[in-house]
Amino acid sequence: MRPITNLIIYEDDLSRIVACLNMLNRKARSRAVLLIDKSGQLIACTGETDGLDVTSLGSLAAGHTAAAGALAQLLGDEEFVFVFHEGERNHLHFSIIGGRVILMIVADQGSPVGLVRLYIKKFSRDIDEIFQELTGRPESVSGEGRFLSESGFGDLTDDDFEQLFNRR
């Protein structure tokens, strides 16, 4: 399995990922859904994330997953693919998808644990399929699609920059 490093995610890829996360969030009746790479970088999130420090959650989720993986190995397993934490008001569900990314569900008392687990299994397959497609692409992709990092600057010419800075 290829690592997620240097993975190119186009806007349409991200749209597909976010659509899966939105559907999972709605069906599982969770507060928020985060998709994080194993280094702790947030790939996408959906739901009630305004009051959440998603950057810190991503970093801590990656550390948690690494620690859980070390515990699993001490017990003779490769990794724990699903970890659940129950708090007084919130629950956290961690799932490793395809050994590549961490799916983190933030749920409250109104989100039945069994329902969340059921939908995690279904949508994990969908998300894994997307990442299999992404990692199966050749290293140099033809110019189709837009990189997320382009932010529209790819359409600008040198003349546009000259006019912008009045250097003519």
Detailed description of the structure:
The protein is an alpha+beta fold. It has one domain: Dynein light chain 2a, cytoplasmic (Beta-Lactamase), CATH 3.30.450. Helix content is 41%, strand content 20%. The chain is built from four helices and five strands. It has a five-stranded antiparallel beta sheet, with helices on both faces. α1 (11-28) runs antiparallel to α3. The radius of gyration is 19 Å and the shape is globular. Residues 140-154 have low confidence and may be disordered.
Form type: globular
Helix and strand element order: HEEHEEEHH
Question: How many distinct domains?
Answer: 1
| Beta-strand residue percentage | 15-25%
CATH superfamily: Dynein light chain 2a, cytoplasmic
CATH architecture: 2-Layer Sandwich
Work out the oligomeric state of the chains in this entry. single chain
- Helical residue percent? 40-55%
Count the E strands: 5
Catalogue the unreliable spans.
140-154
Report the top-level CATH class: Alpha Beta
Helical segment count: 4
| CATH topology label | Beta-Lactamase
Radius of gyration: 19 Å
Mean pLDDT: 80
Q: For the record, give the distance between the C-alpha atoms at the N and C termini, rounded to a whole number.
A: 52 Å
Output the strand order for the largest sheet. 2-1-5-4-3
